[in-house]
Design goal:
homotrimer; 0% strand; 7 helices; 202 residues; mainly alpha
């Protein structure tokens, strides 16, 4: 199991925990928590796979995804308070996760012969639609529609990755450059409370 | 047309009626009622087919599904009151339906070479996601997120089916064993008002 | 680029503008507006493609769809007021669009060897599910569930197209007949405020 796969699984786990915490906030029962953890963790990649026609979808080919998502439930059950307190500690892992999700999504899409513009879009979909599906299932307007969350960081890092790919093979340590860029944009967006209002001029 | 297919169609019909009744409760018009009956009846199997890559999805290959769903509308239109009064009478049919949906979903998934864990999950998806999509389209938090409905019975019956399959060909009359198990769990869950709260310990 | 493709792109553009206007009404930010414009414009065709197994989905094969959807944002940003005032002017374009979407959806489905009943249903899905997904993402009950919008016009025009196809090759100028029928039904439905209540008799 290579480094990329490990980071992918770690990102999935962090997303599952955040989904389980969100479900618990809403007084969902065991099944509600499981389903919300599941869609938050793999919903984005699943939608991407369905749209580009890469089925059976990704998480069906490696049971570790399901095991990790399932493991997030006892973790939240026994350690909710420390997890919530540690939530900010997730931040870095979360940012690494979306950076990697974006690039994995781009690569998978390019691998099917689709254009870089579509690949970039699918990279963003991989990162943000887990949260959108989570919010729709929770009967809330998706957070991302009103607050800059991930999408700009994904676009920035994904674009850098696509540009770099024109000149070199972006693998191994070089992957840290676009992923680092996602993290930087993400940190800036949060610390400076970036927002992207859309207020027509007329 | 074999017995399994007949029970599958009957289960679809019962689900369509329950979807149409739910839509009527919300004052939907004709199209709203049709769409809600449709997604309630075949939404779970459709999502399963899309995720495992078995497309065109199942109900496109046998028009009887569409005819039965369509037939549920005049039935609800002319016989709403007796149907609502008879709702509890649906209970057994409904339980047989989800038992069969679970096992059909498992078989279809195994048939594509996917693992038993994924197959079990897809069996549950086949049974419960019709209701989840119905609730999302009705702008409500899915009932299953807060109340034990089907999922535990599907998991229990589906697991039994998978275990039995290790030792024998589970066909014909033997199918009644896991399906009966689904019905028993379901009856117990309702009569004893089982719930699966998720209340973290810290 | 033939006439049909141009009308398809024009319909997509009109739908994107209406999606962006709807998002702006809800105070979504830039990403919210983009995503809502996107799903309104191509959501119906995307769902159709996923259900019939025609992936990667249609808009991935011609970047003009993405470019037009993206272009709808600055248009709404700079010209919201005139656009809103001109909304009724969209009406004809919108009606031509759904007429064409219906027939393109029917053709694509028939091309995969599926039956005319399924094709007609997929024609309707192509036209109406963009709006349904838009409403679900906006956390509202889909408008079409309570108010006759498009579906009856699509069914009428699509059925006429299927009947004509039995007797002749419906291409070129002849396409104007079923599309014109969609427009007529749509105009009648709006001007006479057609409704399709579903009020059970018992």
């Amino acid at each position: 199991m290579d480094m990329i796969h490990i980071v992918d699984l770690a990102g999935t786990f962090v997303f599952a925990i955040s989904g389980a915490l969100a479900a618990e906030d809403k007084d969902f029962d065991l099944w509600g928590v499981f389903i919300l953890a599941f869609v938050t963790a793999v919903g984005g990649g699943t939608l991407r796979d369905v749209l580009i026609g890469s089925t059976p979808v990704g998480w069906m080919k490696d049971l570790n995804y399901i095991y990790l998502i399932t493991a997030s439930l006892p973790l939240v059950y026994f350690f909710k308070k420390p997890l919530v307190r540690f939530r900010k500690g997730f931040f870095l892992f979360d940012a690494i996760g979306i950076g990697l999700f974006t690039i994995l999504g781009i690569n998978k899409t390019l691998g099917l012969g689709l254009s870089p513009v579509i690949a970039l879009l699918m990279g963003v979909v991989s990162s943000v639609f887990g949260g959108i599906i989570r919010d729709v299932l929770s009967n809330e307007i998706p957070l991302i529609f009103r607050k800059e969350i991930y999408a700009s960081a994904c676009i920035a890092g994904g674009s850098l990755y696509l540009i770099m790919s024109q000149f070199m093979a972006v693998t191994g340590i070089y992957l840290m450059i676009p992923i680092g860029f996602v993290i930087i944009i993400r940190v800036l967006a949060v610390s400076r409370q970036w927002s992207l209002p859309f207020e027509p001029r007329t």
